[in-house]
């Protein structure tokens, strides 16, 4: 189908409803561009706070807002994570219902909602209307497989101190499970939201996943038996970094932070090919003071040049004088265009917290990783980076969960070096090609998108 089939000569209208965090908004927006390209109208639904505070929101998506009950301060103004998630569910449901009601009598009623798996309550609201329901997952299939087995009570909790077998996955040691499972009770609110997202998934008409078949083949085969509606639509990253098919598609279309121009890229321009260590711990996690100190010390003693993203909210944790002492060899920025940075030929390796987007981005751009996972799904992603795809090494943490300066330095030297590094770089090239193939194959996007748009246009 060249363009979205039009029932009653009407362009299908889809609401994209991401969980309000950078790492959840970006991949869903990216997928939405594919739908737009095929002729659908996609409106982005986000919280009032995010709509007001974000940078460079793409004007190609009509923006609709809902409330999370914290319109002025977002999650940081909530008493606790639990109270924020409760409030998001309560106020989000009410305001989404109003949005759907208003649109139902407009010239552009909604055919379908695509909502983040973390927002399983959207399905209940959508059920009150005659519209399609598609759930979009922004974490790996491997972690979903784990959470699903936990949800079903098929994993002994607390985890026993031995390797554990789950269908579709390599045997996992307890610390390789998502932190919410391994360190049971640390974030009960997130545990509830994530584990219970599988309670109503079977009621969704479509299940989209930001991954690609080759990357997670075994686990996908298992999950397809549980949820036949699964469709992989990843890697959900801008086209310019893969096949370049969509002109000017260089960023996701919404950023929580300001990258402050091209300072990072200009700085990289003057560096030798493969010489720079890029360090970033993502968009939301707080790094401990000790971890900042160890990272800083490692970079100070490392022979390589480095580019380190330290968000403004984390900057006070940097050791005093660090920037002055290292200014000849390194640059610290509060945010950067990470995709552009990873694509820069000066980058030699990526010291990453292993968020799923960062992991996919590094795989797509063929950048070897040093895994420094913190919490949530990062621990499991790190396992796959090192032992399954073999595109990086993990810098081990001490008993207090801190990766010490020597351990980090050793990881960087291994990845940047010849022996192990050479093998890792070769694997990274192979996975990069595989990601590109998945992206180009069309199977990931065009076929799925055509089928989806045809169905929502004719049924709703
Ligand atoms: N990111 C960015 N600039 C930065 C740091 C991060 O654009 O300086 C982006 C990165 O490209 C990724 C997202 O922020 O798309 C982080 O998502 P991820 O899933 O890796 O981790 P999270 O922030 O959710 O922990």
User: What separation lies between the terminal Cα atoms?
Assistant: 18 Å
How would you sum up the global shape? globular
Q: What's the pLDDT, averaged over the residues?
A: 94
Tally of separate domains: 2
Structural class: alpha/beta
Portion of residues in beta strands equals 5-15%
The fourth-level CATH homologous superfamily of the largest domain is Glycogen Phosphorylase B
- Named at the architecture level, the CATH assignment of the largest domain is 3-Layer(aba) Sandwich
Give the oligomeric state: single chain
> Strand arrangement, largest sheet?
3-2-1-4-5-6-7
CATH class (first level) name of the largest domain = Alpha Beta
Cα Rg: 22 Å
In short:
This protein is of the alpha/beta class. The protein is built from 17 helices and 13 strands.
Structural overview:
With 460 residues, this protein is α/β, with parallel strands linked by helices. The chain folds into 2 domains: 13-253 and 439-459, Rossmann fold, CATH 3.40.50.2000; 262-435, Glycogen Phosphorylase B (Rossmann fold). It is built from 17 helices and 13 strands. The strands form 2 sheets. It has a 7-stranded parallel β-sheet with strand order 3-2-1-4-5-6-7. The chain is globular and about 65 Å long. The two termini are 18 Å apart. Bound molecules: uridine-5'-diphosphate (UDP). Uridine-5'-diphosphate is lined by residues 21-23, 26, 280, 282-285, 309, 335-336, 338-339, 355-358, 361.
